[in-house]
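Tokens for chain A. Residues wanted.
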């Protein structure tokens, strides 16, 4: 990583897994600049899980999806929105 102050290389001083986030795999990295000595702490996602929390969580299954309604199931005798709107403008009341 690069320093935000002087754009020099940052040296990793400490890496600690962060359990405050519900998603496993995040670590708090403490970095020090090799040039200006600025110390920064960054939240980094690590592909390796050190806490083992990912193994404890069962895989999530998607809920079943019902098929979209077809036009065969819709009633054909009721007027549509635009027909009702124009009917009200013309003074007809179907209600």
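Reply:
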């Amino acid at each position: 990583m690069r320093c935000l102050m002087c754009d020099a290389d940052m040296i990793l001083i400490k890496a600690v897994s962060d359990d405050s986030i519900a998603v496993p795999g995040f670590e708090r990295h403490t970095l020090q600049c090799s040039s200006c000595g600025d110390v920064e702490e960054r939240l980094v996602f690590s592909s390796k899980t050190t806490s083992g929390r990912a193994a404890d969580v069962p895989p999530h299954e998607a809920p079943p999806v019902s098929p979209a309604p077809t036009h065969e199931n819709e009633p054909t005798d009721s007027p549509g929105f635009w027909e009702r709107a124009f009917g009200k403008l013309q003074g007809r009341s179907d209600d």
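The two ends are 69 Å apart (CA to CA). The chain has a mean pLDDT of 77.
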